[in-house]
Amino acid sequence: MGVFSFFSAEHSVLRNLNPTQPKVHNFASRKLSHLLQMRTHLSAAGIVFSQPSPDPSCSFVQDDLQSLLQILPSDLHDNLLSETRRAALLEIILDLGRLPEARYLGEDGGQYIRKTEVTMKELEYAQQAVGEFGRDNRAGIEGTLHRISAIRSRKGGIVGLTCRVGRAVSGHIDMVYDLLEYGKSILFVGRPGVGKTTVMREIARVLSDEFHKRVVIVDTSNEIGGDGNIPHAAIGGARRMQVPEPSMQHKVMIEAVENHMPEVIIVDEIGTEAEAYACRSIAERGIMLIGTAHGQQLENVMKNPTLCDLIGGIEAVTLGDVEARARNCQKTILERKSPPTFDFLIEMRDRHYWLTHQTDKSVDMLLRGKNPQVEVRKRDEKCKVVIEKSKPYDTCDL
Description:
Elements: H1 12-16, E1 24-25, H2 34-43, E2 60-62, H3 65-69, H4 74-81, E3 89-95, E4 101-104, E5 111-112, H5 120-130, E6 138-140, E7 147-152, E8 158-164, E9 168-170, H6 177-180, E10 186-189, H7 196-209, E11 215-219, E12 239-242, H8 249-260, E13 264-270, H9 273-283, E14 288-293, H10 298-302, E15 314-318, H11 321-327, E16 332-336, E17 344-350, E18 353-358, H12 359-367, E19 373-379, E20 385-392
Parallel strand pairs: 10-14, 10-17, 11-12, 11-13, 13-14
Antiparallel strand pairs: 1-20, 2-9, 3-4, 3-8, 4-5, 6-7, 7-8, 15-16, 17-18, 18-19, 19-20
């Protein structure tokens, strides 16, 4: 049986935007531009350390690991700096009265990095080095993409820190580059740590620098554009609007549209009804949305009453006797009640294995108890991105 696209005839205009689009993209073909590298060196406060990525032939990584390690006790700093796997370091865990732990990409669990427990004095030192935490108990290090999250006691004191390594990674964009050319809104879902924010950052750079779009990032925790008033060079020419506190994210999204005339809005971690409503309002004005939402798969968003409006919303409909017999179904069924806010939904099952839904068609099929067709985007052993079209959804497990 031949392979065909899951895009229907009414989307032929989209296909014509890129009629010679290949099925296989050379993932290693795009590196950080010379301009981005120069801006990174000029804007970073100190030396920018370029580390090889865990997949050096697939992507190019820039980070400032030294800045993160400097908030740690000197023995932990030295141990991690000499660690051969530091390029794969994901986060450092400091919990009061427990052994400090390092976690690495692609590994289950963590590894203790010394034999003595974390003291209150060490946590206080790290807190002073980082500075003030926001109401979401997150803080950053100015000029970097690192994120420090606090765990507090009932009295408000910090008793634990999660120090997340932030990296500017170039290469992930090849997994979705062809979809960006359509100018349609895209929603990313996936488990924590799969790389959603990293993809947001690179999409912002490509849309602003290569597609020459007016891009505004609504950066709630300064995780996309980095901490400080000057955004990290990894977002290219995109503009960044900071959010005073998480509960105001939806207001800043609307403000961005009303005041700054963006063609693209990028927002991370859509999680409330107000934010979902703001997304719909923005999409109805013809603005391209790139966002992430809580959940691992499309079904998670469909079953979430707060977020289901992002995929068109779901309502119960009562059919007449004739219609119910014609459909061979019950008289009360579930249907999508409006066009989806996001035209495409991408499930990031893994950093190198994505499933692409045409949102309206996949939602309709699932509500009817049928199996939708999806595109599988993955890397082969040579780090090229391979797109498999019209794959049955229930056969797309890792």
